[in-house]
Write a structure and sequence with these properties.
Elements (H helix, E strand, L loop, with lengths): L2 E6 L2 E8 L2 E6 L4 H5 L1 H5 L11 H30 L3 H25 L4 H8 L11 H10 L14 H11 L4 H11 L21 H12 L5 H32 L11 H7 L6 H9 L12 H4 L2
Antiparallel strand pairs: 1-2, 2-3
Amino acid sequence: MTIRSFVEDGVETFEAQIDGETIQWDKGLSYARHLQTERLLSAQVPVSDQPDEMLFIIMHQTMELWLKLLLHEARLVVTALQTDDLDHAGKTLDRIATIQRHMIHSWEVLATLTPHDFMTFRGFLRKASGFQSHQYRELEFMLGNKRADLVLVHGDDPAVSERLSAVLHRPSLYDELLRLLARRGFAIPAAHLERDWSLPYVASPAVEDAWLAVYSDVEAHWDLYALAEKITTLEYYFQEWRFKHMKTVARVIGQKMGTGGSAGVDYLVKALNLSFFPELWSMRTRLVAAKVGPNYADPAGAGA
């Protein structure tokens, strides 16, 4: 096989014929340098000699990568909402939904870890726990589940604590969505437009009324309606992810306590009752379908 070398754009470049294709590479940016594969593939450091620990590590590392991407995309949504750019917000929310579906399905891989498999290395984990995932906590804060006490878990890492505290004290994605509704003329209470953002969100009948107005006349508010459905999808998939997490943990450890001291499955079940966008859900109960069509009790009308 002959390799031809030449200089292109000031970089030494190589070319070869492989399987009938002309393949080129150079001494500049390579696949491995771009993706930092050496660092990435050396980051799996088991604390035991048990073979199934590798699955556990890689599963959670990939979940952290997807969380990083979700955070990146969620920030883009917030920026788009702040600038009234609903088209880009909607496009990004579609991508988030696709990422979430992948994350939901990925629990199937961890579910192949049997109780026996996990017990072979669980003792080595000591108090290390998914409860300590600062990216998961940041995502919850960004979406609206604000809990200042949860920052305490990360007190041994000042940089992480500072980052979480900053997100805690900023408006959430839902807060920005309500500001958008206010700019569109909906009667959002002032207390929901300027407040202590670090406090948990409290649902408002007035906010529910605003969403009811959007959903009751979708043609007049089509862009808001379409955006609201994508926002609802975000929580729908987030809850499905939580459910799959809970069922996977139940399958692997039953009702044992979590390694970090939580109630394990029972704690994860409680999380299923949390809602990021409460009025978007409660409003649906109030939607009423208009009575249309013939009088089906009247034979003449039924045949009309």
